[in-house]
Design brief:
The chain is of the alpha/beta class. It has two domains: about 1-165, Rossmann fold (3-Layer(aba) Sandwich), CATH 3.40.50.300; about 185-285, GMP Synthetase, Chain A, domain 3 (2-Layer Sandwich). It has helices spanning about 15-25, 65-80, 100-105, 125-135, 155-165, 185-200, 205, 235-240, 245-260, 280-285; strands at about 1-10, 40-50, 50-55, 85-90, 115-120, 145, 210-215, 220-230, 265-275. Strands 2-3-1-4-5-6 form a six-stranded mixed sheet, with helices on both faces. The chain has a three-stranded mixed sheet with strand order 7-8-9. β7 and β8 (about 220-230) form a beta hairpin. α6 (about 185-200) packs antiparallel against α9 (about 245-260). The two termini are about 30 Å apart. The mean pLDDT is about 95. Bound molecules: guanosine-5'-triphosphate and magnesium ion. The site of guanosine-5'-triphosphate has 24 residues, from α1.
């Protein structure tokens, strides 16, 4: 059988997590229109008749302003080591600039097996796409340049077919029932964080961490207590909202999703705590489950 690892890397907001979910046909990673949504490498393991492909979604590579940002970049770079294939994803709907150039320079010499994914082609014209393909083909030696749309699932199956041909003959790395390297509580905390990102603006989405404090499963129900950590008292105020309306809405959004994903009734309680400046404290970042655990 053919098997191997495929890292999905690129700038924040390119659509990496959307692609992982599209490939896996289920939600393993959270998505938002705001940059720096993903904070951990997330493996999606796709086992088929005669192949096993392990996709690694990574945090967007960016210019860091905190210890947190450095941790995110480090995870993305770590994914590049020992993979068989790299998907370098760019957002085809935004112009090429210094941020992209920086990422390109970090990646282009890391492997001979880089597929450039021009994502969000649903947003651009055919002419524009032709132009982009020409421009990108001069920037580095990609083994393929692939226009895709992760949301519309344009060319995703074709991408998988071609990717398989670049993987070596190899073993099954995971048994076929394993689809992700994180446990259910990770997904639960991430879904809560997603709802917070969706409902808040500016610095708040970036200042939030979520930790599952307690979980109990009975015959019919799952009880979850989640701790939401923010950096400042003002952010705590925003998250709770007047008369607790904001936290109630977030809790309700998350509970709806969790009920669907866990397939059972869910009771969710969320608390908010201030941890001053946690994004600059390595020990807190680690404690909140961010970054690669074996580093
Ligand atoms: N129109 C369009 N939007 C897309 C496509 N793929 C992703 N998006 C949107 O782009 C935004 C970012 O998607 P994500 O998947 O969260 O991006 P990411 O690369 O994982 O971002 P980080 O985790 O911050 O690095 C979301 O609003 C997606 O819905 C696409 O093919 N077409
Ligand atoms: Mg992401």
């Amino acid at each position: 059988m053919r098997s191997g690892f495929v890292a999905i890397v690129g700038r924040p907001n390119a659509g990496k997590s959307t692609l992982l979910n599209a490939i896996m046909n289920r939600k393993l990673a959270i998505i938002s229109s705001k940059p720096q949504t993903t904070r951990n490498n997330i493996m999606g393991i796709l086992t088929e008749e005669d192949s096993q492909m392990i996709f690694i979604d990574t945090p967007g590579i960016h210019k860091p302003h905190h210890a947190l940002g450095r941790t995110l970049n480090k995870s993305a770079y770590a994914s590049l080591a020992d993979v068989d294939l790299i998907y370098y994803m760019v957002d085809a709907s935004v112009p090429f600039g210094s941020g992209e150039e920086f990422v390109l320079n970090q990646i282009k010499d890391k492997s001979n097996n880089i597929i450039l994914l021009l994502n969000k082609v649903d947003l651009i014209s055919k002419d524009k796409l032709m132009q982009l393909i020409l421009q990108w083909s001069k920037r580095a030696n990609f083994i393929e340049i692939f226009p895709i749309s992760a949301t519309e699932k344009i060319n995703v199956d074709k991408l998988l077919d071609i990717s398989r041909t670049y993987l070596p003959e190899g073993p099954m790395y995971f048994d076929e029932s394993t689809i992700c390297d994180h446990d259910e509580n990770f997904l639960i905390s991430e879904l809560i964080r997603e709802k917070i990102i969706w409902r808040t603006q500016e610095e708040v989405p970036h200042s939030v961490a979520v930790v599952i404090e307690n979980r109990e499963d009975t015959e019919t129900k799952t009880y979850i207590q989640a701790l939401i950590i923010v950096e400042r008292a003002s952010q705590k105020g925003i998250l709770i909202g007047s008369q607790g309306k904001m936290i109630a809405s977030i809790t309700q959004d998350a509970r709806r999703d969790l009920r669907h994903i866990l397939g059972r009734r869910v009771e969710l309680e969320c608390y908010v705590r201030v941890e001053e400046n946690w994004r600059n404290k390595e020990s807190k970042i680690h404690q909140f489950g961010i970054g690669e655990m074996d580093e």
